[in-house]
Each structure stands twice: as structure tokens, then as C-alpha cells.
Amino acid sequence: MTRPTNFNDNAHPAGKAGDFDFLSGDWKIQHRQLKSSNPDVWDAFEGEATCWSILNGAASIEELRIPARDFSGMGLHLLNQEKQVWSDFWVNAKSGALLAPVVEGHFQDGQGVFVSEDLDGEQAMQVRGVWDNISPTTCRWQQATSLDGGKSWQPNWLMDWVRVA
Questions:
Q1: Residues of 111-149 as b/e, b for ≥16 C-beta within 10 angstroms?
Q2: Is the pTM of this model over 0.90?
Q3: 164/154 Cα distance (integer angstroms)
Q4: Is the separation of the CB atoms in 127 and 145 below 8 Å?
Q5: pLDDT digits (tens, 9 = 90+) for 148-162
Q6: What are phi and psi of 69, to 5 degrees?
Q7: What distance separates the 2 farthest-apart alpha carbons in the chain?
């Protein structure tokens, strides 16, 4: 089972309401997802998203749609006001249930970094999601895994976002 990395210390900046406001609006997304353990085999496809900031910036909702795959889901980004840490949750529309893990993180120097611990079979693994390239019209989300405690990372999903409204 995946567990969030502990961001409840002074080594990370405090999360604040509005950190996810950049995501509000309508987007077209170019996805690239690793198809196998071979880092040269990628699947490319298009998607779209509509995002809202709510609760005075302490929450963000992301509705992701991939029409060609008859897929939709929802990302929920919540600021834990007491811990000043962001948590990410995911809901696949087919199951309608919040999926584990919760991934915790923060924004610093124009990037949002979210890390959790998981298992790959019986081997410990870290999963990292990063929001970067944030501008008024673009952003990128990328996911990578590490089997060596974060010394090296293998990307497995890239999403390049372009604002349409």
C-alpha cells in the first residue's frame, strides 16, 4: 500500500491557499505514457481537462477527459491548513471511489512536488509527481518512479497542458 512521504517538517515550504489557482480553466493535454519497463516505448494520446479552484483557493478540482479512450477521472487537490501541506487524490469515473494513495507535497521555486512511497512487487519504490513549466497558458505534470530511494528517477507519464480558455 502506498503511503505519503512525511512533509510535516520545517524542511519544506508551507503550502498556501491559491497554490493551484494556475490550473483553473479549460485545457488541451498531450499525454505520453510509458508502455512498458523499456524507457523507449511510449504511448502518445490527447486529452482535455476543466479545473476549478474552490474554498478560497484551499482546494482544486480537475476533471480529466480522454475521449478516444472513453476515460474520465477527477483529481482533487486539498490544502491541509493545519499541516500546511497539499494532498492529491484521484477518482476514476468508472469506479467512483477515491483511490489510494494520497500524495502529499508543496510548491517551491515555481514547481509543485508530490511524493509517496509504494511497493513494486516487494521492492520499495517512490512515486513523484511534479507540476512545472507553469505559465498563464501552459503547465506540465510529470510522474516518475525511483527504486533507489530517490537517487534516480524513471519518468513514466508526461502531460503537457495548453490553456484553451
A1: ebbbbbbbeeeeeebbbbbbbeeeeeeebbbbbbbbeee
A2: no
A3: 30
A4: yes
A5: 999 999 999 999 999
A6: -110, 10
A7: 44
